[in-house]
Amino acid sequence: MADVKKINNMFLVNAPAGSGKTTYIENSIVNLLAQYPNRRILSITYTNRAKDELNTRIDSKNVTIDTIHSFLSKFVGLYLSKPEVIDLYIQVFENKIKSQIDNGEKDSKNVRYIDKFGKLDFETIKNNVHKIFYNEQAYSSYYYGGLSHDDILFFCRKMFEKFAMLKKRLSNKYAYIFIDEYQDTSADVLYIFYQSVLNTSSNLYLLGDKMQEIYNNYDGSFNSILSEFNQNEDLSINYRCSSNIVGILNNLYNDEKFYQQPNNSCGKVNPTVMITNVFSESFVEQFKDYMQLYLFNRERFEKIGAGDLFRALSDMKAYKFPSQYTPVDALTDTTNDNPDKLFRILFCICDFIKMVSMAAYGKSIQFAREKKQIFNSEFTNIEFHNDKIIFSDKVQWLEEIYESSTMTIQEFCEFLIDNEYCNKDVFRPLLEAIEYEEVLKVSLSQLHALYAYLGAPSVSTQHGVKGEGHNNVCFIAEDSTRNPIVYMYEFFRLLCVEDVNLTDFQNFYYDYVSEIKSIDLTHLKPAKTYSVHEGEYLKYAQYIKNRYKDNKYFSFCQQKYYDKYLSNPNSTNAKECFKSTKIRGTLWAYKLFYVGCSRAKENLVIVIDENKIASFRDEFIERMKAIGFDVIITVR
Predict the structure, then answer these.
(1) Of the candidates 76, 503, 552, 566, which lies 20 to 30 Å from 36 by C-alpha distance?
(2) Residue 136 zone, left/alpha/beta (φ > 0; ψ -120 to 50; rest)
């Protein structure tokens, strides 16, 4: 096979966990500034936290550091009220708008629109959309021009493709562009920068690690183009983990091209797999000094007293499959990266109350002033001594209300507005939104319990495992049948019977999903419709089975469903057949397990439920030892 011709101004830098990626970006920018002081540089980060960290390290008017949503919405902001852009918006989202209109008055959004504008039809909506905007939500408001996290990126790509001057403006403005965590970046974003930089003098750098692709944003559609990037540089030294843990990471990755070298050759303690059927408090107590990584599923929310919150968010359309975000994202992210506007605000208020409870009044006032879009300016307008007394009394009252937790979340929000702690403009749209109706009915005590739990330094989630390392990590192996779907124990079983490699597994997944998407599955139900098209589905099933007959991942995850359908064709078996759920859940488990292990600097313990490996216990023990773990069995 001929070598792929490389693009000379685009670079893909493999940067595994612990490899000093942020330092690499910082040093690259500093060196470029020294060499070319008048050239502009753009650095795109995945989170606001990463953005803030890089901003503290680099201070130059020629460097822009921003998250992708923030950067793109500002970059195209000049054009979002232009008639030709609004025409493009209507064209791109016409089908979605008409689909919502067809729901009639059973959809409360339609009723509200009619109340406001007198009627609801496509022409009326066209005439009333005067500007497109990023609504910072997980769902779009198509009638009003408000685009969600996903849709704003998709629409920006459409804008760049239609209006060539946007591409030219981007490449003319920035000589060097760095995109961090490329593997979690939407393919729409990658296309925007690729098409803008192609055949120009600008340079594009993508940094990341495909093993850390755990947010389901990237769909693999950019892979063929990635193969054309220059990949000569990688960050192969692991500055975080002990040599023993690096050895395990290499064995799990199982690809010499991505092996790391430990910066610290000393490994004092061997990582341990602990197989147990004892999950008592005394068992968990031994890991009190460890960062404990959980999947953070429904049961855990119930346990901490926030089950109603989890259920209410789970019922929101914004967090149902195939949405990019889940209830876990909204309920566990206390930073400004939280995808949910209501919970970003609520967690900010919780942060403020926490500062007050610690008597950090100066810090709390500064915080409230910085969050002026949330907090009422009169609340922190302190000029005289009497103002301090009023402020002290008000924050004491706020703290008492929060601690008593007798209100619902809606009542608490209204209390904040009525007593001029917060601006009504930021809360009113959320309090009136039908989507939040059930969330707002939940007791404030559940928000209180959730926030207190998230503040515990020993708690993290496997879904949010990316980040800084910890000396001691305890990874609790769990399955999840809810989004995100994770089949951890199926991954362990696969690991025992096959030589697993991330590159091969992930390429198969992307390829298989592409095949399934090419099939029209709308006729699988009702049964009468299926019977008319059964012959077509049988041909598809036979074709896919033949295509992947020698693929070990297909054999493990899917073949039994194809065998069942081909031997007993019916609509139920067909639906089971043309799915990718098990592949995705097993692959996701692989990545979560690897990334969870990579968080440990020195001590790593994996807790395994003995009952869930009963059918392959001996093989599992042997495989874990071969990977580099010690194995301890504690069962009753």
Answers:
(1) 76
(2) left
Domain residues for 173?
A: 7-66+162-235
Q: Is the whole-model pTM more than 0.85?
A: no
Are 61 and 89 within one domain?
no
138 is in an annotated binding site: no
Structural domains of the chain, count: 3
308-360 pLDDT, tens digit each: 999 999 888 888 755 667 788 899 889 888 989 999 999 999 999 999 999 99
Separation CA 379–CA 402 (nearest Å): 17
Q: Is residue 240 part of a domain?
A: no
535 is in an annotated binding site: no
Would 261 be classed as within a structural domain?
A: no
21 annotated binding-site participant: yes
Residue 461 tokens read as 């989630």
Domain boundary among 218, 235, 252: 235
d(CA 270, CA 242): 9
83 is in an annotated binding site: no
Residues 174 and 35 in one domain: yes
State yes or no: 18 annotated in a binding site.
yes
Residues 6+ positions from 170 with CB-CB distance below 8 Å:
75, 160, 192, 193, 196, 197
Residue 17, annotated ligand binder? yes
479, with CB counted inside 10 A (0-12, 13-18, 19+), is middle
SS (H, E, C) 18-57: CCCHHHHHHHHHHHHHHHCCCCCEEEEECCHHHHHHHHHH
Q: Which residue from 243, 435, 225, 420 is spatially nearest to 327, judged by alpha carbons?
A: 435
The string of pLDDT tens digits covering residues 573-586 is 999 999 999 999 99
Q: Are residues 11 and 150 in the same domain?
A: no
Q: Looking at the structure, tell me whether residues 382 and 395 fall in a common domain.
A: yes
CATH code of the domain containing 206 = 3.40.50.300
Q: What are phi and psi of 634, to 5 degrees?
A: -130, 95
Q: DSSP letters of 373-440?
A: TTB-GGGG---SHHHHHHHHHHHHHHHHHHHH--SBHHHHHHHHHHTTSB-HHHHHHHHH-GGGHHHH
User: Residue 404 is encoded by which pair of tokens?
Assistant: 């008593």
Q: What is the CA radius of gyration of the chain?
A: 26
- Residues 144 and 166 reside in one and the same domain: no
User: Where among 188, 213, 235 does a domain terminate?
Assistant: 235
> How far is it between the farthest Cα atoms of the chain?
83
Question: What is the DSSP code string of 218-282?
Answer: --STTHHHHTTEE---B--EESSS-HHHHHHHHHHH--GGG--EES-----S--EEEEES---HH
Same domain? 428 vs 330? yes
* Angle, CA 605 vertex, CA 330 and CA 249 arms, to 5°: 85
State residue 275 phi and psi, 5-degree precision.
-95, 125
Same domain, 211 and 360: no
Q: How far is CA 495 from CA 250, 258, 628, in A?
A: 14, 19, 14
Angle, to 10 degrees, between the axis of helix 617-627 and the axis of helix 488-497?
80
Q: Is 613 part of any domain?
A: no
- Is 450 a domain residue? yes
Question: Residue 420, Cβ neighbours under 10 Å: how many?
Answer: 14
Return the higher-pLDDT residue of 478 and 416. 416
Contacts 24+ apart (CB under 8 A), 617-621: 617/275, 619/496, 619/497, 620/492, 620/493, 620/496, 621/273, 621/275
* Cis check: omega of the bond before 526, within 30 degrees of 0: yes
pLDDT recorded at residue 285:
77
The answer to whether the annotation marks 175 as part of a ligand binding site is: no
For residue 456, say whether it is annotated as part of any ligand binding site: no
